[in-house]
Amino acid sequence: MTSQAESLDPARIALVGNPNSGKTALFNALTGSRQKVANYAGVTVERKEGVLTTASGRTLRLLDLPGTYSLRARSPDEVVTRDAILGRLAGESAPDVLICVADATNLRLVLRLALELKQVGRPFVLALNMFDIAQRQGLRIDVERLASEIGAPIVTTVATRKRGLDDLIAQAEALTVSLAGEHASTWHEPDAAEIRAAHAEAQRIFKACVKPPERPDTITGKIDDVLLNPAAGLLILGLLLFVMFQAVFTWATPTMDLIDGGFAALAGWVGAHLPQGLLGSLIADGLIAGVGSVLVFLPQILILFFFILLLEDSGYMARAAFLMDKIMGGAGLHGRAFIPLLSSFACAIPGIMSTRVIDNRHDRLTTILVAPLMTCSARIPVYTLIIGAFIPQKTVWGFLSLQGLVMFGLYASGIVSALAVSFVIRRVFWRGTVEPFMMELPTYRWPEPRNVLLNLWARAKIFITRAGKIILPLMVLIWVLATFPYPPEGATGPAIDYSFAGILGGWIEPLLRPIGFNWQMSIALIPGMAAREVAVATLGTVYAVSDPDGAATALSATLSSQWSLASALSFLAWYVFAPQCAPTLAVVKRETNSWLWPTVMFVYMVALAYLAAFVTYHVAVAMGAG
Ligand SMILES: Nc1nc2c(ncn2[C@@H]2O[C@H](COP(=O)(O)OP(=O)(O)OP(=O)(O)O)[C@@H](O)[C@H]2O)c(=O)[nH]1
Ligand SMILES: [Mg+2]
What is the DSSP letter of 126? Predict the structure, then answer.
């Protein structure tokens, strides 16, 4: 093969293996990518491609796939893997070589997969990953015998320490050269007898090649005796979540004050050094007041993710899913829905995508429909702004921050309503029992500091890029709408009332007056459809433009003087339920392949939001908060 032909069409290698065996960790180590790695099954739900250069200078394309136990795919993520391996994906041929990734400490199930891979007609190499743990446990594997039994070369690897990678790639590269001997796939859906036979064969090989560990992992069992205890376990889970939300509120305050001060100083500097006029107003009111009011929330978002990453990387997340199974099952949610719902605390979009691990279509749809009720991180700016402006900074019972408590309450309302809605969906759309939940519980591991830091960095980048790409241009637009046209000669009211924003807000406001929204709140909802936190930025800009003396007051101070407590609470209630995010609706359309479900989602969420805000507003007014 000439090097030119090769560069046009480099060989393709796919990583296949059981869930949580370290495929993505290998993929990242080999290609320098930063795909998500975590200690539970079902992290990867899409195919991802990367490029690597071998020691001999060849370019290879590497494919990371969702984990699976068999090519008899059940759930949508497993279908992706099966189709990629068999070359059934549109516009894509089967990979040239497979790397079967095995968790060396858990070989029983992967041997069945390896036997299936033999029928695919592509050469493969078996990577015995997590070999560090296998060695620590004193696990004895007869590697030579195993290689001859499965008819494939074996390489031991430690993906997280980049050990054995050169050897692995050298073996895989060698196999690409022998492609002349490639033959067609003989794989077919096995019948029951074939499945039993394969199972027995895998069992035989396992017994022949693997001796039980000398120092088996007993720690995981001991920890689980406590953490999986139905009473103590749930209590600890509740406590963990509670500490998490308290921390989000209290730890973040100093850093947030710092950032807030920074933006105020910047606005002051701009005010002093730029000539009063359009440009100064655009920069101070549009960019700094708008974008700055959102960027302030970065510390809170990072603290939340820090906790989630620790829970994910240690292996606790799968336990939490297990603990919640009973409660979720009572509400008609599948146990596997837990991790997608938990990911939705970051953002409903990855959460909805990770529902691909749920094989039953109805279970999956139920999860998708309630995922946006989980409080995504884009709601943090909205919640914090309003809470900061209206809820006093008090401690209750001596140690709990009242603001943190309200925040916890908002998160809890999201969770409780998700359970309630799923309960209703189960009765309205599809009855029937929820299938039993099975998920392998990973062994506990110390979180990998590098992994946690890289993930935090990735989160920070997403947040800041959103501020730059979505919020910034929108704020320029909002500033234009809030500034033009100028009020007519002899106008008496504030200038902004005559602007496009004021006129538009005036049109929408009657619709939202029953729930206590003023026109500024109403208008903030529209750009807030692009991303929820934009609503905060919009309020920042609209109030900065209408501020007559141009003094840089903190947005929260402005709000507490302009809104009644009842309106503020109503705004919070609205944001617990409102489908304030067009990208989420688009993903639901893509994942369900129909307009029906995004429509159902939009309608039920608007109805819930309006109802919740209406009740909140009127109850608050009745209690004297109007
Ligand atoms: N000690 C040790 N840990 C590893 C090794 N390889 C991966 N891990 C850890 O194992 C866990 C699972 O790794 P992933 O790369 O997400 O596994 P995956 O096979 O891609 O999982 P799915 O995408 O869910 O199928 C993570 O916590 C990794 O940090 C290894 O060689 N040694
Ligand atoms: Mg993965």
Answer: E
